[in-house]
Amino acid sequence: MTVQPLLCAALAAVLLAAPTALALDAAEMKKLLEIIDDRQRNGGDYKSLAYLEQKEKDKADTVREALVYRRDADDKLMILFSKPKGEAGKGYLRLDKNLWSYDPNVGKWERRTERERIAGTDSRRADFDESRLAEEYEPTYEGEEALGKFKVHKLSLQARSGIDVAYPVIKLWVDTATSNILKRQEFALSGRLMRTLYYPKWQKLFSESKSAEVWYPQEIRIYDEVEKANSTVILIKSVDLRALEANIFTKAWLESKSR
Fold first, then answer.
1. Which residue from 166, 160, 27, 148 is spatially nearest to 99, judged by alpha carbons?
2. Three-class HEC string of 12-79
3. What pTM was estimated for this model as a whole?
């Protein structure tokens, strides 16, 4: 008997014995998206201090400081910029699924789309808001693969009919061990890749209003796939889950902070 047939037989035995990854079915994918959403949802109020570091081609790097307020029970969101001085008092307010921006220099509110670049950076409203993947998208399983040292589920998401989102197609790489998103790509309806995002650091803290832990990304690295030299890093420096003022999510409240 020659050596080659023996090696082939041994290799076949190993391959047959090796466990194969099973694709997630529709119910399992929906459950995974619901877990991702729930882990980031407080059920009460949320306040964070964020830094946005922006790189643009042929421009000096800029750093902005913002306070982000959320009331997840009512789907409300406010972003109020505090630094630099020229940006202080500018903000965004999400009410009744409408996004509004305010500029104290002109004293005017303007309605914005989901594709709005927050303060001219590569970030979007969804990068600061609670996660609604299970509500807004239908998933398709693309396989289990390696992302660096991590084993991940790769999902392709298609926006549900009638839902207003920044990008109708998303691809997600989700850590099989923690269910945290590690990478996200967003596509236009034409199929063109628009943004790539990485989530290298996640943090958790206990929420009294939820009686469970809440997860948030400490760092989001956003790469503009259209203007290749542009990128934004969002750093979440602190998170506070205590109750906020009752009237905070109003245009009048935001305007008062710029006076």
1. 166
2. HHHHHHCCCCCCCCHHHHHHHHHHHHHHHCCCCEEEEEEEEEEECCCCCCEEEEEEEEEEHHHCEEEE
3. 0.87
Q: Is the pLDDT of residue 12 over 50?
A: no
| Burial tier of 98 (Cβ tally within 10 Å: 0-12, 13-18, 19+) | exposed
Closest of 236, 215, 185 to residue 42, by C-alpha: 215
Residue 8 confidence class, pLDDT cut points 50, 70, 90: very low
Structure tokens at 87: 């940006």
